[in-house]
Amino acid sequence: MDTEIRTVKANGITLAYRAWGPEEAPPVLLLHCRGADGTDWTPIAEQLATGPVPHRVYAPDLRGHGVSDWPGTEPGATADAYAYAAMRDDIRALLAALGIERADVVGHSLGGMVAYLLAQEAPEVVRRLVLEDVPAPIPFDPPRSPTERPAGELPFDWAMIEASDAQANDPNPMWWDHMGRITMPTLVIAGGPTSGVPQEWVTVLAERIPGARVVTVDAGHLVHEARPEEFLAALEAFLKG
């Protein structure tokens, strides 16, 4: 199984990714949450790659995470280095660089936000969309306090955390307005009452996407880690159509 770290130039930066499964199999793209990297998906990717219907699975490190470039560390960098739209454009460019015309896209939390922005902007490249415990882009009221930086070396750029906090407090209104552009089949997997994400925000997001289905797995925010078998059952059934 081909799981070594590979890199590709995409949208002006270097993105790292890992891949599993037969190269000729249908492609699935897995996008991780804030502060993680592509290895977060390894158990799920291995199952998707070797299941009854094998898939070619790709799990990139988003910009500012893991082995991908950290543009926020460059001289003169601004908060725009970690705009969600830039992350969206990275993923679109990654698919193009890999020669993938259309893929199933699964996103968790921050990765889910990137996934739905991709589905809004380039619906032709997303066959099916899966959003794991992803909140609607509703401004926090009152605004969320800045996240406190932990001590020591981090596996991600702290400027990315600061930029994502700012975007959570003041999301672009177009993200909400353009939910109707998501025309592909969409599955929303909610983490239930133990999740730190307000579940009404997950529900209202699903209601905004035409035809979206909601499945609740009472696992908290980290559904695919806490309840991998239930997560996979919902995901594989949905990908089969």
Q: Assign an overall shape.
A: globular
Please give the radius of gyration in angstroms: 17 Å
Low-pLDDT stretches = none
SS summary, helix count: 8
Task: Report the average pLDDT across residues.
Answer: 96
Reading the helices and strands in chain order gives EEEHEHEHEHHEHEHH
The share of residues in extended strands comes to 15-25%
Report the strand count. Answer: 8
* Largest sheet report: 8 strands, mixed
Question: Helix amount, in percent?
Answer: 25-40%
What does this structure look like?
The model has no long low-confidence stretch (mean pLDDT 96). The radius of gyration is 17 Å and the shape is globular. The protein is α/β, with parallel strands linked by helices. It has 8 helices and 8 strands, in the order E-E-E-H-E-H-E-H-E-H-H-E-H-E-H-H. Helix 2 packs across helix 3 (110-121).
